[in-house]
Design goal:
alpha+beta, 16-stranded mixed β-sheet
Length: 306
Protein backbone atom coordinates (compact mmCIF):
# COMPACT_ATOMS: atom_id res chain seq x y z
CA UNK A 1 0.00 0.00 0.00
CA UNK A 2 1.40 3.36 -1.03
CA UNK A 3 1.64 5.96 1.78
CA UNK A 4 0.51 9.52 1.17
CA UNK A 5 3.22 12.18 1.29
CA UNK A 6 3.62 13.83 4.70
CA UNK A 7 3.04 17.29 3.22
CA UNK A 8 -0.30 16.17 1.74
CA UNK A 9 -1.42 14.79 5.12
CA UNK A 10 -0.66 18.13 6.71
CA UNK A 11 -2.74 19.81 4.02
CA UNK A 12 -5.74 17.55 4.71
CA UNK A 13 -5.40 18.16 8.45
CA UNK A 14 -5.42 21.90 7.87
CA UNK A 15 -8.61 21.63 5.80
CA UNK A 16 -10.38 19.65 8.53
CA UNK A 17 -9.26 22.14 11.17
CA UNK A 18 -10.54 25.05 9.09
CA UNK A 19 -13.92 23.34 8.61
CA UNK A 20 -14.23 22.69 12.35
CA UNK A 21 -13.27 26.27 13.14
CA UNK A 22 -15.87 27.60 10.71
CA UNK A 23 -18.54 25.40 12.32
CA UNK A 24 -17.59 26.65 15.76
CA UNK A 25 -17.65 30.28 14.62
CA UNK A 26 -21.04 29.75 12.97
CA UNK A 27 -22.51 28.21 16.12
CA UNK A 28 -21.13 30.97 18.26
CA UNK A 29 -22.60 33.59 15.94
CA UNK A 30 -26.08 32.03 16.24
CA UNK A 31 -25.78 31.91 20.02
CA UNK A 32 -24.61 35.51 20.24
CA UNK A 33 -27.51 36.63 18.05
CA UNK A 34 -30.03 35.00 20.37
CA UNK A 35 -31.54 33.07 17.45
CA UNK A 36 -31.95 29.33 17.93
CA UNK A 37 -34.18 26.63 16.55
CA UNK A 38 -37.03 26.15 18.99
CA UNK A 39 -38.66 22.85 19.82
CA UNK A 40 -41.69 24.64 21.26
CA UNK A 41 -45.01 23.82 19.62
CA UNK A 42 -46.66 26.46 17.40
CA UNK A 43 -49.39 28.59 18.93
CA UNK A 44 -52.78 28.03 17.35
CA UNK A 45 -54.25 31.53 17.08
CA UNK A 46 -57.97 31.68 16.37
CA UNK A 47 -59.57 33.87 13.73
CA UNK A 48 -61.18 35.87 16.52
CA UNK A 49 -57.80 36.46 18.15
CA UNK A 50 -56.30 37.68 14.88
CA UNK A 51 -59.25 39.97 14.16
CA UNK A 52 -59.01 41.55 17.61
CA UNK A 53 -55.24 41.81 18.12
CA UNK A 54 -54.08 42.47 14.55
CA UNK A 55 -56.55 45.27 13.91
CA UNK A 56 -53.98 48.05 14.32
CA UNK A 57 -55.36 49.04 17.74
CA UNK A 58 -54.06 48.72 21.28
CA UNK A 59 -56.21 47.83 24.28
CA UNK A 60 -55.77 50.21 27.23
CA UNK A 61 -57.34 49.44 30.63
CA UNK A 62 -57.21 51.49 33.80
CA UNK A 63 -57.46 50.02 37.31
CA UNK A 64 -58.00 51.25 40.84
CA UNK A 65 -54.79 50.29 42.61
CA UNK A 66 -54.25 49.54 46.30
CA UNK A 67 -50.50 49.14 46.81
CA UNK A 68 -48.87 48.17 50.09
CA UNK A 69 -45.65 50.11 50.66
CA UNK A 70 -43.74 50.64 53.92
CA UNK A 71 -46.46 48.85 55.85
CA UNK A 72 -49.32 51.08 54.66
CA UNK A 73 -51.88 50.68 51.89
CA UNK A 74 -51.58 53.39 49.21
CA UNK A 75 -54.24 54.46 46.70
CA UNK A 76 -53.07 54.63 43.12
CA UNK A 77 -53.73 53.86 39.48
CA UNK A 78 -52.56 50.99 37.30
CA UNK A 79 -52.78 50.81 33.53
CA UNK A 80 -52.36 47.76 31.27
CA UNK A 81 -51.62 48.44 27.60
CA UNK A 82 -51.75 45.38 25.33
CA UNK A 83 -50.68 45.55 21.69
CA UNK A 84 -49.18 43.26 19.06
CA UNK A 85 -45.99 44.26 17.26
CA UNK A 86 -43.02 42.75 15.36
CA UNK A 87 -40.02 41.90 17.55
CA UNK A 88 -36.40 41.85 16.37
CA UNK A 89 -35.02 38.74 18.07
CA UNK A 90 -31.41 39.67 17.40
CA UNK A 91 -31.46 43.15 18.95
CA UNK A 92 -34.34 42.24 21.32
CA UNK A 93 -36.33 45.38 20.49
CA UNK A 94 -39.42 46.37 18.55
CA UNK A 95 -38.62 45.91 14.85
CA UNK A 96 -38.62 49.09 12.79
CA UNK A 97 -38.11 47.21 9.53
CA UNK A 98 -39.59 44.02 8.11
CA UNK A 99 -37.31 40.97 8.26
CA UNK A 100 -37.84 37.19 7.99
CA UNK A 101 -36.36 36.73 11.47
CA UNK A 102 -38.87 39.10 13.15
CA UNK A 103 -41.38 37.47 15.46
CA UNK A 104 -44.88 38.60 16.32
CA UNK A 105 -45.36 39.31 20.03
CA UNK A 106 -48.13 40.39 22.37
CA UNK A 107 -46.58 43.24 24.33
CA UNK A 108 -47.82 44.39 27.71
CA UNK A 109 -46.82 47.78 29.06
CA UNK A 110 -47.94 47.82 32.70
CA UNK A 111 -47.75 50.95 34.86
CA UNK A 112 -48.40 51.69 38.52
CA UNK A 113 -48.55 55.17 40.07
CA UNK A 114 -49.03 55.83 43.79
CA UNK A 115 -47.93 58.24 46.51
CA UNK A 116 -45.98 57.39 49.67
CA UNK A 117 -46.27 60.36 52.03
CA UNK A 118 -44.73 63.34 50.27
CA UNK A 119 -43.19 61.50 47.34
CA UNK A 120 -44.49 59.50 44.35
CA UNK A 121 -43.68 56.10 42.90
CA UNK A 122 -43.84 55.41 39.18
CA UNK A 123 -43.38 51.84 37.98
CA UNK A 124 -43.44 50.50 34.43
CA UNK A 125 -42.69 47.10 32.95
CA UNK A 126 -42.75 45.84 29.36
CA UNK A 127 -43.24 42.13 28.64
CA UNK A 128 -42.90 40.59 25.17
CA UNK A 129 -44.61 37.21 24.68
CA UNK A 130 -44.09 35.40 21.34
CA UNK A 131 -47.23 34.53 19.40
CA UNK A 132 -45.72 32.09 16.90
CA UNK A 133 -44.61 29.42 19.39
CA UNK A 134 -45.51 28.34 22.92
CA UNK A 135 -42.41 29.84 24.53
CA UNK A 136 -41.83 31.96 27.59
CA UNK A 137 -41.42 35.72 27.31
CA UNK A 138 -38.59 36.90 25.07
CA UNK A 139 -37.91 39.98 27.16
CA UNK A 140 -39.01 41.85 30.28
CA UNK A 141 -37.84 45.36 31.15
CA UNK A 142 -38.85 47.23 34.33
CA UNK A 143 -38.08 50.66 35.76
CA UNK A 144 -38.99 52.20 39.12
CA UNK A 145 -38.70 55.91 39.82
CA UNK A 146 -39.17 57.60 43.19
CA UNK A 147 -37.57 60.53 44.95
CA UNK A 148 -34.86 58.43 46.59
CA UNK A 149 -33.63 57.28 43.17
CA UNK A 150 -34.45 54.87 40.40
CA UNK A 151 -33.70 51.29 39.37
CA UNK A 152 -33.88 49.32 36.13
CA UNK A 153 -34.03 45.58 35.48
CA UNK A 154 -34.08 43.65 32.20
CA UNK A 155 -34.33 39.96 31.32
CA UNK A 156 -33.49 38.73 27.81
CA UNK A 157 -34.26 35.18 26.73
CA UNK A 158 -31.30 33.26 25.31
CA UNK A 159 -31.40 29.50 24.75
CA UNK A 160 -32.06 27.85 28.15
CA UNK A 161 -31.60 30.95 30.32
CA UNK A 162 -32.31 34.64 30.76
CA UNK A 163 -29.53 37.20 30.76
CA UNK A 164 -30.34 39.67 33.55
CA UNK A 165 -29.14 43.24 33.91
CA UNK A 166 -29.78 45.20 37.09
CA UNK A 167 -29.03 48.87 37.73
CA UNK A 168 -29.94 50.32 41.11
CA UNK A 169 -29.16 53.32 43.26
CA UNK A 170 -28.85 50.97 46.27
CA UNK A 171 -25.21 50.17 47.01
CA UNK A 172 -26.08 46.59 47.94
CA UNK A 173 -27.50 46.05 44.44
CA UNK A 174 -25.50 48.49 42.31
CA UNK A 175 -24.82 47.23 38.79
CA UNK A 176 -25.08 43.50 38.19
CA UNK A 177 -25.24 41.08 35.28
CA UNK A 178 -26.14 37.42 35.80
CA UNK A 179 -28.19 34.53 34.45
CA UNK A 180 -31.29 32.67 35.62
CA UNK A 181 -33.04 29.59 34.14
CA UNK A 182 -35.53 30.25 31.34
CA UNK A 183 -38.54 29.15 33.38
CA UNK A 184 -41.98 30.73 33.45
CA UNK A 185 -41.90 34.44 34.34
CA UNK A 186 -44.62 35.89 36.53
CA UNK A 187 -44.55 38.99 34.33
CA UNK A 188 -45.86 37.01 31.36
CA UNK A 189 -48.94 35.67 33.17
CA UNK A 190 -51.22 38.57 32.05
CA UNK A 191 -50.10 38.10 28.42
CA UNK A 192 -50.77 34.36 28.49
CA UNK A 193 -54.17 34.83 30.10
CA UNK A 194 -55.22 36.93 27.12
CA UNK A 195 -54.51 33.98 24.81
CA UNK A 196 -56.71 31.50 26.69
CA UNK A 197 -56.93 31.08 30.49
CA UNK A 198 -57.99 27.45 30.05
CA UNK A 199 -54.51 26.67 28.67
CA UNK A 200 -52.56 28.11 31.62
CA UNK A 201 -50.06 25.78 33.33
CA UNK A 202 -51.35 24.20 36.55
CA UNK A 203 -49.82 22.05 39.29
CA UNK A 204 -46.22 22.20 40.50
CA UNK A 205 -44.15 24.73 38.57
CA UNK A 206 -40.98 26.80 38.77
CA UNK A 207 -41.50 30.54 38.39
CA UNK A 208 -39.47 33.73 38.67
CA UNK A 209 -41.42 36.38 40.63
CA UNK A 210 -42.39 39.62 38.92
CA UNK A 211 -39.70 42.22 38.38
CA UNK A 212 -41.89 44.79 40.15
CA UNK A 213 -42.02 42.65 43.29
CA UNK A 214 -38.30 41.81 43.12
CA UNK A 215 -37.28 45.45 42.90
CA UNK A 216 -39.63 46.65 45.66
CA UNK A 217 -38.67 43.78 47.99
CA UNK A 218 -34.98 43.64 46.92
CA UNK A 219 -35.23 39.85 46.87
CA UNK A 220 -32.81 37.66 44.93
CA UNK A 221 -33.83 36.95 41.34
CA UNK A 222 -34.25 33.19 41.04
CA UNK A 223 -36.74 30.49 40.09
CA UNK A 224 -38.97 29.48 43.00
CA UNK A 225 -41.21 26.44 43.50
CA UNK A 226 -44.90 27.24 43.30
CA UNK A 227 -48.31 25.70 42.69
CA UNK A 228 -50.67 27.02 40.02
CA UNK A 229 -54.44 26.52 40.09
CA UNK A 230 -57.24 27.46 37.70
CA UNK A 231 -60.88 27.75 38.76
CA UNK A 232 -63.89 28.38 36.53
CA UNK A 233 -66.90 30.32 37.73
CA UNK A 234 -70.08 31.33 35.92
CA UNK A 235 -68.56 34.26 34.01
CA UNK A 236 -64.88 34.30 35.00
CA UNK A 237 -61.64 32.36 35.32
CA UNK A 238 -59.59 32.60 38.53
CA UNK A 239 -55.86 31.81 38.11
CA UNK A 240 -53.61 31.71 41.16
CA UNK A 241 -49.91 31.16 41.83
CA UNK A 242 -48.95 30.11 45.37
CA UNK A 243 -45.23 30.25 46.11
CA UNK A 244 -43.77 28.03 48.83
CA UNK A 245 -42.36 31.25 50.29
CA UNK A 246 -45.90 32.28 51.29
CA UNK A 247 -46.55 34.79 48.51
CA UNK A 248 -49.64 34.42 46.28
CA UNK A 249 -50.62 36.14 43.05
CA UNK A 250 -54.06 35.77 41.45
CA UNK A 251 -55.89 37.06 38.39
CA UNK A 252 -59.59 37.14 37.49
CA UNK A 253 -60.45 37.25 33.78
CA UNK A 254 -63.61 37.15 31.73
CA UNK A 255 -64.59 33.66 30.65
CA UNK A 256 -65.20 34.75 27.07
CA UNK A 257 -62.70 36.07 24.53
CA UNK A 258 -60.87 38.49 24.64
CA UNK A 259 -60.47 37.30 28.28
CA UNK A 260 -60.13 40.77 29.75
CA UNK A 261 -58.39 40.98 33.11
CA UNK A 262 -60.99 42.13 35.64
CA UNK A 263 -58.68 42.28 38.66
CA UNK A 264 -55.51 40.95 40.22
CA UNK A 265 -54.18 40.53 43.75
CA UNK A 266 -50.87 39.91 45.51
CA UNK A 267 -50.34 38.81 49.10
CA UNK A 268 -46.93 38.40 50.70
CA UNK A 269 -45.29 38.41 54.15
CA UNK A 270 -43.94 41.85 55.05
CA UNK A 271 -43.03 43.57 58.31
CA UNK A 272 -44.52 40.81 60.43
CA UNK A 273 -47.90 40.73 58.64
CA UNK A 274 -49.41 39.99 55.23
CA UNK A 275 -49.15 42.83 52.73
CA UNK A 276 -51.60 43.14 49.85
CA UNK A 277 -51.75 44.69 46.40
CA UNK A 278 -55.08 44.80 44.55
CA UNK A 279 -56.19 46.25 41.23
CA UNK A 280 -59.78 46.48 39.99
CA UNK A 281 -60.82 47.35 36.44
CA UNK A 282 -62.24 50.83 35.82
CA UNK A 283 -62.34 51.56 32.08
CA UNK A 284 -61.12 50.11 28.78
CA UNK A 285 -60.40 51.83 25.47
CA UNK A 286 -59.23 50.37 22.16
CA UNK A 287 -57.32 52.93 20.16
CA UNK A 288 -54.07 53.63 18.25
CA UNK A 289 -52.68 55.76 21.08
CA UNK A 290 -49.26 56.25 19.44
CA UNK A 291 -50.95 58.52 16.87
CA UNK A 292 -52.81 60.52 19.53
CA UNK A 293 -50.16 62.72 21.14
CA UNK A 294 -51.78 66.01 20.14
CA UNK A 295 -53.45 68.01 22.93
CA UNK A 296 -56.83 67.47 21.24
CA UNK A 297 -56.66 63.83 22.29
CA UNK A 298 -56.27 64.62 25.99
CA UNK A 299 -60.02 64.12 26.34
CA UNK A 300 -59.46 60.39 25.79
CA UNK A 301 -57.96 60.22 29.26
CA UNK A 302 -61.45 60.94 30.59
CA UNK A 303 -62.61 57.79 28.78
CA UNK A 304 -60.11 55.88 30.91
CA UNK A 305 -60.95 57.74 34.14
CA UNK A 306 -57.36 58.97 34.33
Amino acid sequence: MRLLPYSFLLFLLALVSCDQQNEENHSLSKEESGISESEAAPRELTAGFKDYWYSGLAEISSYDLKQDRYGELRDGTAVLIFVTEPFDVQDQVKADQSAPSNRSVLKLNATRDFITGIYPYKIMSSTFLPLDRQENALKVATSIQEWCGHSYMQLNHKADHYNVQLYSYFQSEGTKEFQVPAVLLENQIPNQLRLNPAEMPVGKIQMIPSTEYLRLSHDETKALPATATLKQEAATYHYEISYESGRTVSYVTDKQFPYQIRSWKEEFPSRGSIATVTATLKKTLRTAYWNQNSTKYAVLRDSLAL
